[in-house]
Amino acid sequence: MLDTTMPAPPPSAEGHNADDAALVRAAVSGDSGAYERIYRRHSPRLYAVLWRLCGGNAARAEDALQEAFLQAWRALPGFRFESSLGTWLHRLGVNAALMELRGQAGREADADVGWEALEQLPGPQRCAGTTLDLERALETLPPRARAVLVLHDIEGWKHQEIADQLQMAVGSSKAHLHRARGLLRAQLGEPA
């Protein structure tokens, strides 16, 4: 479970990449404290993304977060520093959340929406740049449309990356994004 009582580190700074590399090396050498520092540094931002992808369901977001860090622990010895550690962890987390979305396809969405979990995140980590109204509107989107919108508009993925990850055509990704934006505008009472 995400420990929201710990102060979050400042947003990624230049020194974090070098510090992350040292933490990775220490964790691979068996220093569990180093791995804990990796978790504490990267989990708040990753949780916010996973929370959005999981439609505001705190339990699913936490499951995806834990799965991502379990995968990271297993794969850390092979981490080649071709990207930043944060980017790599982010990919693992998004993949875990998307696997959950694929697994829930066709099932009813849970009634348990974890708004209180979002409200308890430290201010800067609380889905920066958005309001709770937007977060609640995101939750109402169909899962695939929500995933495309979050990945494209919030996380900055390209349509090809989204299409590959969600196993759809690039045109479908664009159509889902267009649909999601229209549904959000309607939810928020904005003109089309």
Folded structure, characterized:
The chain is mostly helical. It has helices spanning 14-28, 32-53, 58-75, 85-104, 115-120, 132-139, 143-154, 159-166, 170-188. It is elongated.
Question: What is the topology?
Answer:
Blueprint: H1 14-28, H2 32-53, H3 58-75, H4 85-104, H5 115-120, H6 132-139, H7 143-154, H8 159-166, H9 170-188
State the gist of this model.
This protein is an all-alpha fold and 192 residues long. 67% of the residues lie in helices and 0% in strands.
Descriptive tags:
single chain, 192 residues, mainly alpha, elongated
Fraction of residues in H or I helices: 55-70%
Report the span from N to C terminus.
39 Å
Mean pLDDT: 79
Strand segment count: 0
Return Rg in Å: 17 Å
SS-based structural class?
A: mainly alpha
Poorly predicted sequence stretches spanning 5 or more consecutive residues: 1-14, 106-130
How much β-strand is present in the residues? under 5%
Overall geometry:
elongated
What's the total helix number? 9
